[in-house]
């Protein structure tokens, strides 16, 4: 067996045995900052090589509030009633999206990521003022749109969104900023800020060796930048002290 084949097998075994990095994202369906973070940072990173290394827990609630009147749950959302509906759609999608045995290239996680990314890209700019749920489902191989839509328009959607609200309030009440990202169930304000502009950098810190190529390349780039700086600092120390 050639060394190349052995190397490939070792990488495949490492991926299969890897414990995924748990990442929780607290966001809002119509929040511009949430959309920017998810579509520009999270999606490109997780859709690529990190697909098998990251497990995302989506929490679509943000700075919303809810009250109960008997069996009815009433929501007041950060960006208005349309966001309340959008948050319900996201909560229902997270609940109802399932992988199909005849589409082995798609997992439940990857389908959910694709759907949420599509919805966040649409933002408030719906084509012809048509809500993008059906289009995003159709474009991303999701057959459960009717179930998601029915859920969002019934008591089930309210119950699911209420659970997302309870999860958010258990984490922070009120939520300090939207979006907020938590790595490995431990919130770190500095990491949260860093992730907003370089989600990949933070995730790679938590992935053990052997790391995927994208993380290895990132580490190499950092080392290439840091080494000359250290050399310059050493020169200055020797020269002037």
Automatic annotation (TrEMBL):
| Keywords carried by this UniProt record | Glycoprotein, Membrane, Signal, Transmembrane, Transmembrane helix
Origin superkingdom: Eukaryota
Keyword flag Oxidoreductase: no
* Pfam families cross-referenced by the UniProt entry: GILT
Matching InterPro entries, A to Z?
Answer: Interferon-induced_GILT
Bilayer-spanning residue ranges? 216-238
Signal sequence range: 1-18
| Similarity section | Belongs to the GILT family.
Q: What is this protein called?
A: GILT-like protein 1
UniProt source species: Bactrocera dorsalis
């Amino acid at each position: 067996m050639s060394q190349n084949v052995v190397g490939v097998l070792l990488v495949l075994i490492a991926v299969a045995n890897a414990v995924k990095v748990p990442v929780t994202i607290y966001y809002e369906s119509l929040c511009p900052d949430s959309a920017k973070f998810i579509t520009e940072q999270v999606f490109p990173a997780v859709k690529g090589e990190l697909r098998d290394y990251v497990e995302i827990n989506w929490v679509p609630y943000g700075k919303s509030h809810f009250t109960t009147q008997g069996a009815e749950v009433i929501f007041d959302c950060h960006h208005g009633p349309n966001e309340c509906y959008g948050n319900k759609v996201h909560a229902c999608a997270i609940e109802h999206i399932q992988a199909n045995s005849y589409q082995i290239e798609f997992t439940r996680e990857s389908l959910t990521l694709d759907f949420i990314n599509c919805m966040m890209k649409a933002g408030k700019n719906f084509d012809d003022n048509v809500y993008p749920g059906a289009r995003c489902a159709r474009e991303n191989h999701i057959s459960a749109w009717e179930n998601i839509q029915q859920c969002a328009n019934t008591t089930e959607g309210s119950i699911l969104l209420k659970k997302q609200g309870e999860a958010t309030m258990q984490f922070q009440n009120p939520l300090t900023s939207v979006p907020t990202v938590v790595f490995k169930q431990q919130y770190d304000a500095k990491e949260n800020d860093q992730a907003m502009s370089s989600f990949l950098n933070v995730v790679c810190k938590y992935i053990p060796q052997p790391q995927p190529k994208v993380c290895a390349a990132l580490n190499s780039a950092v080392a290439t930048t840091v080494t000359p700086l250290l050399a310059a600092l050493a020169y200055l120390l020797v020269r002037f002290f």
